[in-house]
Amino acid sequence: SDRIGVMYFGNMVELADSEELYNNPIHPYTKSLLSAIPLPDPNYERGRQRTAYDPSVHDKSEEPEFREVKPGHWVRCTTKELEQYRKDLGL
């Protein structure tokens, strides 16, 4: 697929071109999903860390909105989270 949308409890939480999403996941739920994909190397798989999604990490002081973090890459987040995501990406 050219674009991928990630849903969590019926809400879109991230939308981006497939290559962008796989290489630069932003939303914690997307990171958790991608860490759960098994890889075909059993030696690597044994020691691989999974990322558990913890919804309590989100800022509850504001209703999240779907925002463009960088061109073509959208994430449901608060203003504070948006600033942090952009900082983490060096934008």
Automatic annotation (TrEMBL):
GO molecular function: ATP binding
Keyword Nucleotide-binding included in the entry's annotation: yes
Keyword ATP-binding part of the UniProt annotation: yes
Superkingdom in the source lineage: Bacteria
Signal peptide range: none
GO terms of biological process kind: peptide transport
Residue ranges constituting the Oligopeptide/dipeptide ABC transporter C-terminal domain according to the UniProt record: 13-60
Region of interest (Disordered), residue spans: 44-65
Basic and acidic residues bias spans: 56-65
Key words of the record: ATP-binding, Nucleotide-binding, Transport
InterPro entries in the record: ABC_transp_ATP-bind (IPR050319), Oligopep_ABC_C (IPR013563), P-loop_NTPase (IPR027417)
Family, similarity comment: Belongs to the ABC transporter superfamily.
Name by which UniProt lists this protein: Peptide ABC transporter ATP-binding protein
Species this chain originates from: Virgibacillus salarius
